[in-house]
Structure prediction request, 153 residues.
Amino acid sequence: MRRRSLLAVAGWLVTAALATLVGVAAIRLVGESITGTPGGVRSQEEVERALATPASTAAAPSAGVPSPGAPEPTGSAGAGARRVFATTGGTAVAECGPGGVRLVSWAPAQDYRVADADRGPDDDVEVTFVGPGGEYELKVQCVGGEPVAGADD
Prediction:
């Protein structure tokens, strides 16, 4: 009887270990597909590179066919230079266009919030991030057609 009990316990332990190994392997396989590149954590360089790449936009349908002698339209407001700015409080993307500089987007860092944002377009735009580390104000102007972070007045 003792031998039978020992075999039952050993069989149960082997089965439990095998089930655990199969479960860990399944979680590893599923975990890699869940946290792979498309939805995983990205580095600061990857974020800046993605934000700096202009988004492709579909051209609006033309209202009419231009005559052969008509001049070509000039650049649009969205065709300006775009740049990413990062502070401890958050990140912002600004671009220069015919109307001046404008904030394209902004995002606070973890534990920070946006206290104020002047989107523009204007001579200068700014966004203020507030959090446990203090207040960070990012002010951007266009210099030579390029967005440049400047000192607050």
The two ends are 90 Å apart (CA to CA). The longest strand covers residues 134-143. Confidence is low (pLDDT under 50) at residues 56-78.
